[in-house]
Amino acid sequence: MPGREGAKVREARRIVVKVGTKIICGNKGRLDLPHMESLAQEMAALWREGFEVILVSSGAIGAGVGRLGLSRKPRTIPEKQAAAAVGQGVLMQRYETLFTPCGVIVAQVLLTRDDITNRERYLNARHTLQTLLGFRAVPIVNENDTVAVEEIRFGDNDTLAALVACLADADLLVLLTDLDGYYTADPHKNKGAQLIPEIHAITPEIEAAAGGCGSALATGGMGTKLAAAKIAMQAGIPLVIANGMKEGTLTAVLKGERRGTIFVPLEERMQARKLWIAFGSPVQGRLIVDAGAAGALLKKGKSLLPTGVVGVEGSFAVGNVVSIVDPSAQEIARGISNYDAQALKMIKGHNSREIKEILGYHDYDEVVHRDNLTLISHNDS
Questions:
Q1: What is the tens place of the pLDDT at every residue in 14-59?
Q2: Neighbouring C-beta atoms of residue 76, cutoff 10 Å
Q3: Boundary of a domain, candidates 229, 250, 273
Q4: Over 25-82, what HEC string results?
Q5: Of 7, 11, 9, 17, which Cα lies nearest the Cα of 44?
Q6: How many whole angstroms separate alpha carbon 237 and alpha carbon 228?
Q7: What's the domain count of the chain?
Q8: Is there a single domain that holds both residue 205 and residue 82?
Q9: Any long-range contacts for 34-39 (C-beta under 8 Å, 24+ apart)?
Q10: How far apart are alpha carbons 12 and 6 in whole angstroms?
Q11: Is 185 in a helix, a strand, or coil?
């Protein structure tokens, strides 16, 4: 992997590695123990070299399907939760068995989206991961499928892995899959599909190349990996998609060898709080701003004032995260609103000094202060 991108990967010391269900379980729902052992030994060798490793592992539901003898993937939330409850224990027992002879302590970390969207729980999860790494343990992260319902699910471990990389201030995120990387089309369906070695911008053509789910037991596909790449690129974290079915892939990636596809991140790394605003907290509403306000946010680093707001959509409270869009409806930022939706509908378009006269109170001059605002880069210029 030549050039600046390869150097950044070779310099990585704290890495998040995500392995998918197909890597862990194949298509039948039974744990592939020889392959798991090979991966564990490779990660343990990296750990001995001084790398800090976080493993985001799929496979709990798949392992539960195998242990329960089910003939199909669970369809309902209770069925998935039951399979996960069985499979999570099986999965962790195997990892403990595989890592212990290598001298590596593993720690189970189960997360739901609530652990990311709630600021206090986000910080708790962040501190836990940082402390485990300080103890030289390897956190093994998965979604807490046993208790998660639709509203608080990540839905796929690619997104979870990207958010964990943000949580942990990782230097690199590697998604191990059963393909050699990101292709111009689905290589299973199109023999002419070509591997893309580097992606600097997520264009409509790149998005169109994303395929669907890869196996009956998996919940992700290239579409979810692309969503993870958007988060990682914005966060300043390189992301590599590579073939985890081939032995030695992870080690080769960290040596800077050309393996898979690298998504090249933005130069500047986003601050932890800004990351949480952009990706951790759910968007509760939308503010439409005029061209002048959009320019002030994007080019001058200004706060958003009520005079620049021309439209308010959704129902949100003070302290909720809102999306900020320009006159063409393109999202340019996200931020924490100082006023609720009803108040903003009354003061939009007005000068800050008129707020008290309109509302009867004046808590802030700004609708969104620049310290609570994150610009959204589209990386396509």
A1: 999 999 888 887 666 678 888 899 999 999 999 999 999 999 998 8
A2: 8
A3: 273
A4: HCCCCCCCHHHHHHHHHHHHHHHHCCCEEEEEECCHHHHHHHHHCCCCCCCCHHHHHH
A5: 17
A6: 11
A7: 2
A8: yes
A9: 35/245, 36/94, 36/95, 36/98, 37/98, 38/247, 39/176, 39/244, 39/250
A10: 10
A11: coil
Residues 182 and 222 in one domain: yes
Cα(229)–Cα(198) distance, integer angstroms:
12
- In sequence order, the 6+-apart residues with CB closer than 8 A to the CB of 190 are none
**pLDDT for 102-124, tens place per residue?**
999 999 999 888 888 888 888 89
**Structure token digits, residue 333:** 């930022």
CATH number at residue 301: 2.30.130.10
Strands 106-111 and 138-143: parallel
Are the CB atoms for 266 and 377 separated by under 8 Å?
yes
Region at 196 (left for phi over 0; alpha for psi -120 to 50; beta for the rest): beta
**Is 380 domain-assigned?**
no
